[in-house]
Amino acid sequence: MTREQRLVLTIAVLGSFVSFLDGTLATVALPAIKAELGGGLSAQQWIVDAYLITLGALMLLAGSLSDLYGRLRVLTVGLIGFGAASAAIAAASSTEMIIAFRAVQGVGGALLVPSSLALIMSNFSGPAQARAIGSWTGWTSVASLAGPVIGGGFIDLVSWRVAFLVNVLPIAVSLVLLSRLQQRDVRRDGASIDYPGAVLAVVGLGGTVFALIEQGNLGWSHPLIWAPFAGGILALAGFLRRQQTAREPIMPLSLFRIGNFAWGNLATTFIYAALSLSGFVVVVYLQQGAGFGATQAGLALIPATVAMILLSPVAGRLAGRYGPRPFMTAGPLLAGTGFLLMLRVRDPIDYWTQMFPGAVVFGLGLTLTVAPLTSAVLGAVDPSRSGIASAVNNAVSRVAGLVAVALVGLVVQEQLDLAGFHRGLVATAVLMLIGAIVSWLGIRTSRPEQSTEQPAGGVR
Q1: Considering the entire predicted model, what is its pTM?
Q2: For the residues of 202-252, what is the DSSP string, one character each?
Q3: Architecture of 3-180+250-442 per CATH?
């Protein structure tokens, strides 16, 4: 790699790292937040999902913002906004304040991921691009898996409040490196923003998720449940209709006519729903049900983190050589098997015999899955559309996680005890299996579709 490419890859990894890190760090902080500020299962779900609602809905808008204002500028704004929201969470005096600032944090996170991936796609090509994507997916996946470990350490040794400030250093480093890039920022001439589409997406996701989380408390017959749910469904239908008619849609439905893009996003839905569900269930149960400390709970899936660090670039390179299909099929099957192995957990828990083997198998499966999945989706479209393609794929993964966490109450039946933990593991394995089947049926080795659009202009 050239000096500029090394800088680009480092910025892309660090910029996305903080978003993925806080996405899972909050989960391990939930018991500590509950102990200090109160709140039940629904409050814990909202602390996770408030972030995912704005992250998933506005990530689509962020792809258009990158086209209009330039990916470097959007990345800079996202980093500053994310850091400010993190500081506000650390100073919050109630769960309601945490939920509100988590939503703001999601806005900042939404600006980071699409811009980071688009930066990679525009600076790398061919096998080098596959390796760069492999490194990006490896390190961002490590961030998701390391969030509970890093957060748990700060929670046990200092405070959950300090845990939300761990991203200050990577944000500062990213801003410094951005100032050293020599390339001009790029924006697309004639780009515009579909604000009505963004509003419909936020209202649609917010209404449906509110109903899914709170139905356990109020019941489906309550007006505060069925009314937001119905309104959310109508808003989502309006969003899809809007994307058919908007001049510059934030989620171009034409992309879904591309085979690997459509099937890859469908696989993403099930695989990332499984990851979010398992992350919530495992980390919260180990603390509230099995009596683990925050650090111990965070370390429970550390074998997966090690596997991602060591093997993700290799998986990306092999997927570039042999195609993503075999990896996207075998990987989820292996990961699902890992969760089924964790069904051996009993009370009292013996981590090394009951959880560790499953964590190792899960880590190997996840490593085989993530980089090939990203390559399959982004490699299916023309590089000039990589920004919006990455935004759509990452939004799909976040929305899938959002819905999965919202449905935790239905899966575990309102109580995350040992039986509920086992139900969560089985549901996770089933989602992984469906992801593997979708990948086998739909993913093919193919060349990117050719865009009919004009190349993006190089305006600063």
Answers
A1: 0.79
A2: HHHHHHHHHHHHHHHHH-TTSHHHHHHHHHHHHHHHHHHHHHHH-SS-SS-
A3: Up-down Bundle (1.20)
